[in-house]
Amino acid sequence: MRGTRAQTNTGRKEGVNLNKQQKQKKETTIDSYYSPNGTEGERSANDKPEIPANWIQAVEELKTQLREAEDNWEKNLKIKISHLETEALELKQENSVLKAKIIQLENEAKEMKDEAKEMKDEIKRMKDNLQRNLDQKEKDDQKAKDEIQSLRTRVKQLESSDLTRQQNTIKQNKKNEKIEENVKHLIHKTDDLENRSRRDNLRIIGLPEDHDKRKSLDIILEEIIQENCPEILEQEGKVEIERIHRSPPVFNPQLTTPRNVIAKFKNNQIKEQVLQAAKKKPFRYHGNMVRITQDLSASTLKDRKAWNMIFRKARELGLQPRIKYPSKLTIFLQGKVWSFNTTEEFQAFINKRPDLNRKFEVQRQNSRESSKGST
Question: What residue spans carry the region label Disordered (predicted)?
Fold first, then answer.
């Protein structure tokens, strides 16, 4: 727009100069024609008719008007030229500002171009890094898949081996159960054989240690029989003892109770007579209470010892408890004899009978109170 305006002003200036030149040429022609001293005017006057005076006056007035118009036109032209020059200066200044702005924009565009290049390079680096990361991730994923597949294979192998192991364990458990049954049977047979080897033995419990320091144990046993069941000696005469000793053989001074005495009779009938007499009444020796029982194996004694508390409670309740060979408890209840191989069987039996269970509970409480009182 500003370029168009500058071109318009230039055209105007050239038109003004052309009109001015034409006017000066015209004025020169008229002046020279009407000049008082002009030769051309004189030549014209000689050749042409005389011009009226009013016409000359009109021409002079016209010339004056033309000069005034020319002066006004020149003034206006100068003013317009001044305005045009001012506008040209402003346009020049604006052009300088525009050039500065263009230079600034070019610099900014260059900076933006550099930044765009840097961003492009950065995007390329990021893309390369991303591609490398993706490649590495694919490798890691593939590695993880391979490891998972390997683990699955191992798990399957372990499951297979575990199944085989379980099957072997089941087989081994069955074998172990069979072995345990055989062991229990062998233990039972061994205990039975040991108990049968002890069938001629009696165990004397509670005999003080100082008695056998003055006399031999076989003489003491004969005196016990003489004091508590003399009829056996009257019938059989002398009691023959194959072997008699303390058990354990080594004395432990820390024990407060005397060691048991085990006596092996040569005659089993005499042994049974003494045992039956000891079941009927308590034996004494020189004022001391002694207890005579059948000699049994250690395991059988342990099994019988488990019945001690139940045996005492059953006896206090009038159930007539008995311990039968090898370690079986029997009671008399409601006109019937009941037998139990283990304490668990007996507990399950009384749990089914609330009245009997309550009696045993009361008996347990009384036993605890009495034990606390004695303590």
Answer: 1-51, 128-147
